[in-house]
Amino acid sequence: MSDVSHSVDLAGIGAGPFNLSIAALADSHVPSLTTRFFDRQRHYVWHSGMMLPGTHLQTGFLKDLVTGVAPTSPHSFLSYLVAHRRFYRFLNAELSTVSRAEFSDYLRWVAEHLPNVSLDEGVREVDFADDHFRVTTEHGRYRARHLCLGTGKRPWLPAFAEPLRGPRCLHAESIAEMTHDFSDQRVVIVGGGQSGADIFINALNGHWGMPASLHWLSRRRNFQPLDETAFTNEYFTPEYTSWFTELDDATRQREVLAQKYASDGITPAALLDIYQRLYHRFDVLGEPRWAHLLPHREAVDMDSIGEGFRLWTTHGLTGDRERFDADIVIFATGFQSGLPECLAPLQDRLSLTDGSITVGDHFMVEWDGPPGHGLYAVNAGRTRYGIAEPQLSLMAWRSAVILNHMAGRAVFDIEDDPGPVTWRPVKDRNA
Ligand SMILES: Cc1cc2nc3c(=O)[nH]c(=O)nc-3n(C[C@H](O)[C@H](O)[C@H](O)COP(=O)(O)OP(=O)(O)OC[C@H]3O[C@@H](n4cnc5c(N)ncnc54)[C@H](O)[C@@H]3O)c2cc1C
User: Fold this and answer.
1) Mutate to test the pocket of ligand 1, among 46, 47, 110 (most ligand atoms within 8 A of CB)
2) Among 46, 259, 326, 430, which one is most buried in terms of CB atoms within 10 A?
3) Which InterPro entries does the entry mention (predicted)?
4) Which residues of 391-402 are buried (b: 16+ CB within 10 A; e: fewer)?
């Protein structure tokens, strides 16, 4: 490791899509800021552990790293298509959604082209001293005026499953990282969101070999669709997000819960695909029914029996306890926020709620540092900014908000003209 300390205006920890968006916009539009983004991935893949065949984006491809605020940027998805000489074929393919594999390759292309992104350079430690953030990476030391935290979220497993974690009891986020053999195995998937659906489709298709049985359990009252209708999509606009931040804490939390299926449901296309596959296999071809969907089941306990497991659930309507004997259990149970280890030296200076940072105006983290030193965070302010915060939809806009604030001027136009819905109360109106 080099002993020399490099100075930058902004250091980014992690270069997942959210920080990569800031890196891309800073590169093309804010040359006055020196920036450096570090990611520990050597070969850039977007959620590599979930890169399964047939998986698609839940959002449109124009919601890329930059287009929402800088449509002429060289780092747009359209620039990627043109650079790869497949713009016309992409149009002819009439894809309603881009595959996750293609979007991941787009992100890789941007990350590898940007001079301000360092791959294969994990951040080990971040501290604040001598009026600077001190960032220690695997290869060097940096002094930074501002910091942007973009390390993503951690997979969440129910506490009862943690001690059993292994190749046969795993979280969805790592399923594509190992080879599995489901042949003649009793497989249970827990979790009724998009990841559960993607794994169910692949298991049903025999991607890991044909299972003896396949049970898909969901705590939800049914296999709920993603609400991607026009007025629901208004939640994913700068106008709505700005209004949302003005609400009080309790109201924001209540609204986020009520809007769950605007971001956490399964795409209608995937649901129909599953239904049609089940119909063909079990109704048309008449195979004995070995795949089962069980909503309203909350997994509550699990123990190991020999090489397998016994999983207990409670029925959401009747309270009945049910038992599932399985050889392989996959938890598609989502992600949680948490403080990255490299931030430990700063921990005492952060305002934490239940172990998570608090995000305020301009996506800045509340901390007791001196003025003029912004600690920004992306994908960490769901209760502050609403359900768009962990999604791709507004990432370019959020990056523009952060860069405008850091630059101290309106580099990007982040204002939105009023849409068809009146969110704010109106005192007097002649109807
Ligand atoms: C399987 C999956 C599919 C999704 N699909 C969609 C979708 O279609 N539409 C949508 O709107 N949202 C989607 N999301 C939600 C969200 O858009 C993504 O999770 C998105 O990747 C979040 O971006 P991020 O940059 O915050 O975090 P991540 O993508 O998790 O990236 C974090 C990065 O930080 C790096 N890192 C972590 N710690 C360090 C460290 N100490 N030093 C250096 N680097 C570090 C990691 O290597 C990683 O590259 C999806 C989520 C998942 C899990």
Assistant:
1) 47
2) 326
3) FAD/NAD-bd_sf (IPR036188), Lys/Orn_oxygenase (IPR025700)
4) bbbbbbbbbbbb
Tell me how far CA of residue 226 lies from CA of 144, 193, 194, 197, 357, in angstroms.
40, 9, 9, 12, 28
Tell me: the pLDDT tens digits for 349-397? 998 888 889 999 999 999 999 999 999 999 999 989 999 999 999 999 9
- Residues 169, 299: Cα–Cα separation, whole Å: 14
pLDDT over 80 at 430, yes or no: no
Mean pLDDT of 23-45: 97
In the numeric block, which tokens belong to residue 162?
């943690």
Dig out the tokens for 178 from the structure: 């190992």
Give the H/E segment covering residue 154. Answer: strand 154-155
376, amino acid identity: Y
Task: Provide the terminal-to-terminal Cα distance of the chain, rounded to the nearest Å.
Answer: 68
User: What pLDDT score does 426 carry?
Assistant: 87
Q: Which atom of ligand 1 is the closest one to the Cα of 41?
A: 47
The position carrying tokens 């016994």 is 310
Give the CB-side neighbour count of residue 82, counting CA atoms within 13 A: 8
The angle, 0 to 180 degrees and rounded to 10, between the axes of the packed helices 395-407 and 17-29 is 50
Residue closest via CA to ligand 1's atom 52 equals 47
User: Which distant-in-sequence residues (6+ apart) come within 8 Å of 89 by Cβ?
Assistant: none
Tell how far the Cα of 184 is from the centroid of ligand 1, in angstroms. 34
State residue 2's pLDDT score: 56
Tokens, residue 252: 């924001």
* Residue 187 to residue 80: CA distance in whole angstroms: 39
Query: From the alpha carbon of 38, which atom of ligand 1 is closest?
Result: 43
Relative orientation angle of helices 268-278 and 194-204, to the nearest 10 degrees: 30
Ligand 1 atom with minimal separation from the 341 CA: 41
Task: Choose one of 379, 382, 395 to mutate for the ligand 1 pocket test, by most ligand atoms within 8 angstroms of C-beta.
Answer: 379
Q: How far is the CA of 121 from the centre of ligand 1 (A)?
A: 17
Atom of ligand 1 nearest to the CA of 195: 1
Which domains, and CATH codes, for the chain?
Answer: 5-153+337-407 (3.50.50.60), 157-225+264-331 (3.50.50.60)
Question: What average pLDDT does the chain have?
Answer: 96
How much is the CA Rg of the chain, to the nearest whole Å? 23
In one letter, which amino acid is 341?
E
Cβ atoms of residues 254 and 324 within 8 Å? no
